[in-house]
Design brief:
This is DNA-binding protein. The two termini are about 20 Å apart. Strand 4 (about 70-75), helix 3 and strand 5 (about 110-115) form a beta-alpha-beta unit. The chain has helices at about 20-30, 50-65, 90-105, 120-135, 140-150, 155-165, 165-175, 180-200; strands at about 1-10, 35-40, 45-50, 70-75, 110-115. It is globular and about 55 Å long. It is about 50% helix and about 15% strand.
Length: about 200
């Protein structure tokens, strides 16, 4: 199980973004969440996810806003999990708390805690997450525009028509924005999270 604990950065100098962000996550990932986001305290919220690919998608979407410290805890939860994530308990919740505390001190705004195997640790997954965020932070507006259109399912030909540019210009934007590299990195991070989560149920 993946528990995400997310805290708004520098909230005293900006608007409260918790409610609209929770609504956006719920709307985008309807059916993918074990427990929907809920405010836990102040400018912090929490949610529960079982799928590592969804976990990566949510974490990267939040990181792109630059407004959140994102902690990901990997581990078991006490069963049965209550209807409200705020009432949940167990190892993953404790690790998510440790992770968001670490994320507040990180230049990359994310930390991962929990899970282990003979091949890797949570720090390996965290390093991949940091590299992905660093890559995405360098992306300019044209690259984000193309990335969003690709994510919506449009082909490069249709994107060229939509933006009134040549197909070769679309290809160049994809290359400059390192969209293919990001996709490979996302898949790698999801795989690492899956291994770490699976290891939690493996006897020592």
């Amino acid at each position: 199980m993946f528990i995400l604990t997310v805290d708004q950065r520098d909230s005293r100098h900006g608007a409260d973004r918790v409610e609209p962000t929770m609504r956006a996550i719920t709307r985008t990932h309807t059916g993918d969440l074990i427990r929907r986001p809920e405010r836990t305290a102040g400018d912090e919220f929490q949610l529960a996810v079982a799928d590592p690919t969804v976990t990566v998608a949510i974490a990267l979407s939040l990181s792109a806003e630059g407004a959140w410290s994102i902690g990901i805890g990997i581990g078991d939860v006490d069963e049965p999990l209550p209807p409200s994530v705020r009432a949940g308990s167990g190892e993953a919740f404790l690790l998510a708390r440790d992770a968001v505390t670490a994320a507040k001190r990180s230049a990359w705004r994310v930390a991962i805690r929990g899970g282990s195997s003979t091949e890797l640790s949570d720090r390996n997954a965290e390093a991949v997450a940091e590299l992905l965020i660093a890559l995405r932070d360098r992306r300019g507006a044209p690259g984000w525009e193309v990335a969003g259109l690709l994510e919506s399912g449009l082909s490069q030909t249709h994107i060229a028509e939509r933006l009134a540019i040549s197909p070769s210009a679309v290809s160049q934007r994809i290359k400059t924005a390192a969209i293919g590299t990001e996709r490979a990195g996302r898949d790698t991070l999801a795989t690492l999270l899956r291994i770490l989560d699976d290891s939690e149920g493996t006897p020592a």
